[in-house]
Design brief:
By secondary structure, the protein is of the alpha/beta class. Helix content is 33%, strand content 12%. Helix 10 packs parallel to helix 15.
Length: 435
């Protein structure tokens, strides 16, 4: 095992190094300047795509929900069609919907028609959103200042073009994403926890955003932040990002930007689907996706039910050996992995400091060798025997970058199908969207 040639997702790690280099982020350097990879030959054409994105008036996918009271017809925006639908409910020809009660008074009447019309015209002074855990939260308009208490939420907001609205961040953002700037902003939380109420009140945000992982504390936090809308949203999870981006884009006056970002993600999601659509089940390799929790003695497998990492790996042209296990991440016996004998292994670097800006490919190769050491019997696993073991940086499968992560998964397992698609260049394309 010690002499085994290790492999690493060089493009993924180097892709994160791009964040620290303005010249590279602008696309002025070639991928070959960063790493000696075969992908650099296709640096000018990441899947025949360009920086331009399809722009629509509102999110169009039937799976996307604008969770704001007044969205009577339950599509991706609030417009005069919602006014007309609310009127049809009052007249008895339309069926009542979850968001038709624009005033939130448990009655659908002409007051809701008026409120919906004001929202559609951009003249409402307040609206009510339903956050990621079903809480109704009143938000005063226009929103000027926001505080995201989780660093991956902050990244998504930056991609949405709200950098000038952010007045505070969590400590993890400065520690893990200082390449995105905002270095002068005060730290008001730690990864969504330990909110500094005094500091938040001093900054006077209109909205404080919590990650879904802290949703159970939302009410307690809200009690300590009077006159502040405390909202829990899944802006870093593949499962929830489209709908939550749609909602927050509308609330923050960034509806166009949200639709553009969603269209960008959809374009690359469709790209993977198109490239892998003809694969038969027997053509799909098996893979083991490990949750690197930091404990060397534990073996945690990520299942397809995981709303972030698990969902990203699904649809990439492989079979997760953890399919069918109960839960999102499950502790397993190493013998179980050996018996399953996966064709590929992916190690998710959850700790955050093991990869990213400042790390070299040599650093990652050394880390991968360490990850594989002390695993008796793993030398018999196909993934190890065939040098198909990869490290995964969690930041490239969270937030809008989740599609980049899926492309990496798909290209690792099916390099022949993605020969002309360069994830590094797609990553640089994304970075241009963050001022």
């Amino acid at each position: 095992m010690n002499g085994m040639k290790t492999k690493v997702l060089a493009g993924m790690i180097i892709g994160l190094l791009l964040l620290a280099s303005p010249a590279l982020a602008s696309g002025s350097a070639n991928a070959s300047d960063l790493a000696d990879t075969s992908d650099s030959e296709n640096a000018s054409d990441p899947g025949n795509t360009s920086d331009s994105m399809a722009v629509s008036g509102s999110a169009s996918s039937p799976d996307i929900m604008l969770s704001i009271l007044g969205n009577a017809n339950e599509d991706g925006t609030i417009d005069m069609k919602d006014v007309e639908y609310t009127e049809s409910i009052i007249l008895g020809s339309g069926n009542p919907t979850r968001f038709a009660d624009a005033t939130g008074d448990n009655s659908i009447d002409m007051l809701d028609v008026t409120k919906t019309e004001l929202i559609s015209l951009g003249k409402a002074k307040e609206l009510t959103l339903v956050d990621g855990v079903g809480r109704q939260v009143n938000v005063a308009l226009p929103v000027k200042n926001i505080i995201p208490t989780d660093y991956r939420t902050t990244e998504t907001l930056l991609a949405l073009g709200t950098g000038d609205m952010i007045v505070g961040v969590d400590r993890a953002f400065h520690e893990r994403m200082d390449e995105f700037g905002l270095l002068d902003l005060p730290e008001v939380a730690v990864h969504g926890k330990s909110v500094d109420y005094e500091m938040v009140l001093t900054l006077k945000p209109d909205i404080v955003l919590l990650p879904l992982s802290q949703a159970e504390n939302a009410e307690d936090i809200a009690k300590n932040l009077p006159n502040t809308a405390v909202v829990s949203m899944g802006l870093s999870s593949q499962k929830t990002i489209d709908s939550d981006l749609t909602t927050m884009g509308f609330v923050l006056g960034k509806e166009k930007e949200a639709n553009e970002l969603i269209s960008w993600m959809q374009r690359y999601e469709d790209l993977v689907s198109e490239q892998t659509r003809d694969l038969k089940s027997d053509d799909m390799p098996t893979f083991y996706y490990e949750y690197m929790s930091g404990g060397d003695e534990n073996w945690w497998v990520i299942t397809p039910e995981d709303p972030s990492a698990g969902k990203v790996a699904e649809g990439a042209g492989g079979h997760n050996i953890a399919a069918g296990l109960a839960g999102t991440s499950v502790e397993v016996d190493p013998e179980w992995i050996i018996v399953k004998n996966p064709d590929f292994m992916f190690a998710d670097l959850m700790k955050g400091f093991d990869s990213g800006p400042g790390k070299t490919e040599e650093d990652m190769e050394n880390l991968l060798a360490k990850v594989l050491s002390g695993r008796p019997g793993f030398e018999r696993v196909n993934a190890v025997k065939n040098n198909n073991v990869y490290l995964v940086d969690r930041d490239v499968i969270g937030g809008p970058r989740w599609v980049i992560g899926r492309i990496y998964f798909a290209k690792c397992m099916h390099p022949e199908l993605f020969e002309d698609i360069n994830p590094e260049e797609i990553h640089k394309e994304y970075l241009k969207k963050i001022p």
